Fold these 2 entries.
Entry 1:
Amino acid sequence: MIDVWTEKHRPDTLSEVVGQDKITERLEAFVEEDSIPHMMFAGPAGTGKTTSAVALAKDLYGDDWKQNFMETNASDERGIDVVREKIKDFARTKSVNADYKIIFLDEADALTSDAQQALRRTMEQFSGNCRFILSCNYSSKIIDPIQSRCAVFRFNRLEEDDVKEYIKRLGKEEDFKISKDAIEAVMRVSEGDLRRVTNILQTASINNEEIEEEDIYGVAASLRPEEIHEILEKSLNGDFIEAREELADLMIDRGLDGQDVISSIHREIFELDISDEGKLEIMEKLGEFEFRISEGGSSDIQIEALLAQISNLEEN
Amino acid sequence: MWTEKYRPESLSEYRGASSEKKDLKKHIEKWEQGDKAVLLHGQAGTGKTSLVQALANDLGYELVETNASDVRTKSKLKSELKEATRQASFIGGKKLILIDEVDGMSGNSDRGGVKEIGTIVDETRFPIVMTANDAYDNSIRSLRNKAKTIELGSVHTNSIAAFLRDILDEEGIEYEDGVPKRIARQAGGQMRSAINDLEAIARGKERITKDDMDVIGQRDNRQEIFDSLKIIFKTKNLSNANQATENLDEDADTMVQWIRENIPREYKRPGDLSRAYDWVSKADVFNGRIRRRMNWKLLKYVYDFSTIGVALAKEEKYQGWTKYQYPSKIRQMGQSRASRQKLDSISSKMGEKLHMSKKDVKADLPLYANLFRERPDIAEGLELEDKEIEFLEKF
């Protein structure tokens, strides 16, 4: 039994998905008619893309959903050969008590354009017995030929009221109390990401029967690596070598993703004790190096180069 | 020639590339008319042809081979290769068609050849393997689309060294410790060059020593990289910097790591540091472009930017001696391999249960670690083992 709340409270049916009523209504109609198109779910993290895909499969296949539904994450397996083979192997076997199966390709925007080209052909080849659901943060990262084969659904950030409603329900079911201020704090630190909301609440509730504002900030702080702030400070003070070592620890030993480090840096810029012009200058540089990563650079070298730029900043 | 004499006769004799081997074998065994061809690619001397020959031997298929030394005009291909892909083997068994070096088709004399090969691939009754150094060469784009691509990476130094030792044993030649390893290291991942070098040194001898390696111009790598670094960091002259890596036998990636490691050890002025890093950053972008598109033509820029760029980044030369160091990234990656693998397998396990990517699990790991500390039962519910839970404690 999985007792992580994000799983425990993941809806089993489309009608229970939080805050995406228009989309889930459409999906329910597809289920009703037993006719599913290829689909693309686009939207930010924690808005219900994966949940909707799983709920759709459960509604559609009932007890056979696991045999007829394959989930694979493109950010874990970018290599098109892996994706292609895994997908093909799954597609080749027969569906159980259904005309077609569903292949859910999560974070499809992590695929290279070459890989997407290959996927496009695979989609055609197996469209007889397979439907594809692709999820992504930005639909613009998916090549047109794939987009044009999909019904595109945009998952918007959840409305505040929906999230608050959800928090209250969770409190009832899991037996914790939470103050108004704490709810506001959850909203702020989670930016409408329901998985984050859930994870933070579960962690905060372990030690507190009544969750207060500072409990939330305490939990959220553990997610925002202290080190990033230190690394930036050290760079500003010219301790470049030390800053570089800490960065390597974070990325190599703790396995933090380059993109996450960049997002944290972006957040931390606002907290630095320098002039506003200085902050803007760092942002500009951060943008340049993030762009270089998207052009093929490796995140560790590019972020290090940013630190070198920052260490040159103050003396001017 | 030893490269011929010691060509592997079966897949089990073939060193390295175990997953690629399996991949290729599976594809060829299961191949039916209409399935894709295979495009086997990788730098020269990684054993593409040997692999196909060993496979044909193992499966008992007749190998029909054409390579760049054959004329491959449209009409020639039509009359010879196409026939071979239509008719059953004369002994009645199956065939494997090897079209070697498809990226080596000559534009003029082999006119129409690529297109004809495309037709042959479409219509063949037997499985086809094509090989290429550069799978992303534009001239063979149409073929790439018809093929399952399998890449052979460079061969690991240890695998090469082990094979060289076997050859020496077989030839009854004694050797000073470390010689096979040195030859292997110098071959830069190419089995064929290593065997050729070995033959040049050892043929007809009873025993070989390090001194014998002079004939192939052996130099100590480590010393070499220090020399290059010294030039790059100490000069402000374009052509000096340009020549710094001329004799350097290191791949571009490793060289960039050495330069990156030592920039802050030499360059103390923040302006120099940031300019130098900017050039390394640009070199790294080109490295990435090469990796993505296999466009090796771009390699010169990696060298230009990381040597000339870094050299000219300083306002003034620095006096004195600097102790250059081994790249900490390479060291750290080595040291933390075990724990990174563990982290990866835990994230993958949790990701599967929680519908998350490994990357997202890793980002939220501090939360989960917190949770598991208080409630180990939750970790057990995710089927994490005691050791894995213990490992997470440190987060």
Note: Chain B is about 55% helix and 5% strand.
Entry 2:
Amino acid sequence: MQRRQKVIVYALMTLVMIFFLGPILWFILLAFRHPSEAYTLPPQLIFEPYLGNFGDTFVDPGNNAPQLLSSVIVSSGATLLSLPFALASAYALSRFAMRGKEFIMNWYISLLIAPPIVFVIPYFILMSRIGWAGSYQAMIVTLQTLAIPFSVWLLKSFMDEVPLDLEEAAWVDGANRFAAFFRIIIPLALPGIIVTSMFTFVFSWNNVIFPLALSKQSTTTLPVGAISFFASTGVYWGHIAATAVVAMLPPMIIFLLLGRYVVRGLTFGAVKG
Amino acid sequence: MKLRIRLPYLLLAPSVIVLLALILYPLAFALRNSFWFWNLQMGPAPLYYSGLDNYRMVFQVTPFGVALKNTLLLGFLGTFAQFWFGMGIALLLHTHLRGMGLMRALLIMPTTLAPVVAGFLFRYLLEPKGGLLPWMLTGIGFPVPPQGFLGNANTALFSIGAVDTWQWTPFFAIVLYAGLLSISEEVKEAAQVDGASAWRMFWSITLPLLRPIAAFLVMIRFMQLFNSFDLVFVLTSGGPGVSSRTLSFNLYREGLVNYNIGATAAMTWLVVIIVSVIINLYLFFIYRKREW
């Protein structure tokens, strides 16, 4: 490639990176600004960092600290609950020739792209009828409409890569299907199981529609908590930013750790990155 | 040998049963209550059978037509913009110059955010007084509506689409880049030997080979845009007026703000039917040849 072309490519990529990362950095700075300086124009890039926004939201009075815990409980709960269901189904779809396989796979994906709001309102009524209104389990169970189909697709793509020979060798050695599943498939697909769990965790973490309708004040999650700072008395940008920055960190770190699996996860295993 | 046949179905059963229960309940609930008058503000149970009144209410009382138009517009424009911006960036990444690996890893950050958080970012950036973007745009002489882009009926919906495009263009970029990597060098070399220009190669070789991936991405993203709720909720609440209301937001308003469960149930079925028609039309046109 010629020097001039390289310069053009780098110039364009610089613009691309500023465009996509600039808003995030600008918002992170907001979390460290004193509330009185949220709107200072022309913008100040150098300023004395102020930690009070984090103090107010997570320490004293710290109303958002329990929401952080709720987010962890709901996301981990949804991930753990989906795993056994998804492992069994992904194994079946990966290892057996059966009628209707393509139909089942498409059915799972149709759930992933269906409008969640359609389910949420009936769940809202259902949960108050069975005494689960505002409970963690209400959110964890209903999130399965997304967590299970997603995990089935992604896990299947990982299990497809475990060679059948290894499993057959175990059968020859006298292991039955169950033993072979736990001794061969689970260990060899373990990286895939971890990757799948991390994605399910992130998607549950970032979900707002279920907790918005199904949580109560003491069980609500961090992103929903941040919304409440759009009060009728004004917008508390410092508090929104502090809460949102804490809420955005786990997904960002997980995506950086996932590295080459990001493409696969975001496409439910359909595109191997 | 009986077990061998039954085993895969036995393994599928738990997830299928759980999911069926989780879907059929809301759909049956909505079907039944779409024919009953039921407002939670007036009582905890349906009041009386009301025939098709709820369906009439959806069209006459809620801005269903506007919401449908907005939803489709958002879906088409958003998917189109994200696909082509993403393709452009994928081609830049594909030059494999030094540093592209790191940039690719960082580029995906917007997609990792919760949509509500992306909403916060841009609500702050777009504040009519004190927001960075209106300040910069005014500086270069670009007209900014006095109520801000989110407070103007002509720009609110497009602003939502722009924020979604900011968030999801990186997704298209890195997945299409992965697609570019999977195109074999031999095919490209053969075309080069035949004297094809870079432009011609892109349209005649690269794009057709990316078709299976592109078709999948477009379907997923179109539907996610079609379901837009979080961004609408944070950025405009469907306003000003109903100018940026989407179908999902309309459902939310009627169900969890007005507590009109009957009309919400009727709307649920209308939306389910619209979504099924769209998905099946898409599958019919794109996957007639079964490419994945």
Note: Strands of chain B lie at 36-37, 48-49.
